[in-house]
Amino acid sequence: MANELRLILGDQLNAAHSWFKEKSSNVTYVIAELHQEANYTTHHIQKISAFFAAMQAFASALEKAGHRVIYLSLDDTQNYTDLPALISFLITEHEIKTFSYQLPDEYRLREQLADYCKQLTIDSKAYDTEHFYLADNQLASYFKPGKKHRLEHFYRKMRAEFNVLMDDDGPLTGQWNFDSQNRNKFKASDLAEIPEPLVFANDVSDILKRIERHDIKTIGKAEKQLLWPVNRSQANALLAFFCKELLPKFGQFQDAMTGKLIEFGEDKGWSLYHSRLSFAINAKMISPQSVVNAAIDAFHHNGNIDIAQIEGFVRQILGWREFVRGIYWANMPHYAALNALDASLPLPEWFWTGNTKMRCLSHAVTQSLDFAYAHHIQRLMVTGNFCLIAGINPDQVDNWYLGIYIDAIEWVEMPNTRGMSQFADGGIVGSKAYAASGNYIKKMSDYCGDCHYKVTNTVGSDACPLNALYWHFMDKHKESFTNNPRTKMVLSNWLKKPESDRKEVLTRADFLLQNLDNL
């Protein structure tokens, strides 16, 4: 009979954890599909399928390595109201003397387990996940509650501390950041060169039946052959593919968008030069360190990868990913209720269908529904920007992002959405609200040429809705934005316009805001 029960959550599939260095008949691991986790928001069907498939694969790998594992499906856990109820049953059933778990990366789950352990009559232990660059107990020395932190300072500190792309005490090549070189738009001649994405064919038909049998509400397109990696081997294959085929042009085109690739017979527009490793990393199938090290090794050995490409990638993982985690834990739980701009409108119906005449939004939303994925600029500057300038309630925006994306776990989703995208945190994450008119979409994509609306028009029935909504947003918040050096000039130019012109734009915006479902 095992003396210790160790819980492994669905995003804790870390084979390199110190737990697994030794095998013991006194230790039993439990991995469980939970109704609690499948239902706390409305998830994309591919997201639930991917997590369950990865959990099954991890349990099987642990068993093959000689560990004692209990894997429980939705069928097995349906009679337990929540995770504590299940654990209590297992403790009694297996006469457990010690309950152990790795610290959850979501506040909700961490509080649930901490509260549960307080009332246990047996010993309990909480362990670090041993996944991130910064250990859990280091975060408080980097991040303070309510403080307006900035990525660039943190990123440089991390580069130096972990000796990543460094040359003695300074950055390799003498420059920290190449972001200004990583804002290229695709030309027509670039499109044919974009590689076919590496996808997998993981059979999740039984999982889909199980989800349907338990009436789990989901969104998005279901695929019996799941294209996402569900084990460490597949994740490493995707990493190797990225380093060889995609990294040479990743930085250059990391902000670019296109809707034209369907013309080549295969819509590669959802993948482009992005690694699509976020699900594998966030589920901890592979570590951020191994990803960064592999990319840097490719940079040193592949003459086609220049410093701007590798730096842009490293900044996302060593910089941004660690940064938003620190913001999350420094500011929860009150961060989840922040709404600095008092945004209150409901999310338009077409966020669940993609049925809008705005080409950029239609492509981003439809792609998200089809693949449970969109790259960072689609999330920030297309769907996110629309929600920001339309004044959508950040609670609804949070729930949509948390549910629809395969890589969305609250610690990484919320600071990106409520903070960076919606500016609902008042500037804790970003130094300004990332609001944009249709001109940004025109600059970074080819959507506008195929759109029902005219990006060059601000008023009139055929005018791009983003234009009037942008100026309405800036005008509405001019009192708080006027003193921000990053928005001061834009507002000054707006206020110099004749009052009649401004009124015409605001009237158009009011009409749009009253008809968001019909855009």
Which structural class should the secondary elements be placed in? alpha/beta
First-to-last CA distance? 62 Å
Biggest beta sheet attributes = 5 strands, parallel
What CATH architecture of the largest domain do you see? Orthogonal Bundle
The top level CATH class name of the largest domain: Mainly Alpha
Q: Can you say what the CATH homologous superfamily of the largest domain is?
A: DNA Cyclobutane Dipyrimidine Photolyase, subunit A, domain 3
Number of helical regions: 21
Tell me the fraction of residues in β-strands, as a range. 5-15%
Description:
- 46% of the residues lie in helices and 7% in strands.
- By secondary structure, the protein is α/β, with parallel strands linked by helices.
- The chain has 3 domains: 4-127, Rossmann fold (3-Layer(aba) Sandwich), CATH 3.40.50; 136-197 and 231-331, Serine Threonine Protein Phosphatase 5, Tetratricopeptide repeat (Alpha Horseshoe), CATH 1.25.40.80; 349-518, Orthogonal Bundle (DNA Cyclobutane Dipyrimidine Photolyase, subunit A, domain 3).
- Helix 13 packs across helix 14.
Comma- or semicolon-separated keywords:
11 strands, two-stranded parallel ribbon, globular, 519 residues, 3 domains, five-stranded parallel β-sheet, 21 helices
Short description:
This is Deoxyribodipyrimidine photolyase. The chain folds into three domains: 4-127, Rossmann fold (3-Layer(aba) Sandwich), CATH 3.40.50; 136-197 and 231-331, Serine Threonine Protein Phosphatase 5, Tetratricopeptide repeat; 349-518, DNA Cyclobutane Dipyrimidine Photolyase, subunit A, domain 3 (Orthogonal Bundle).
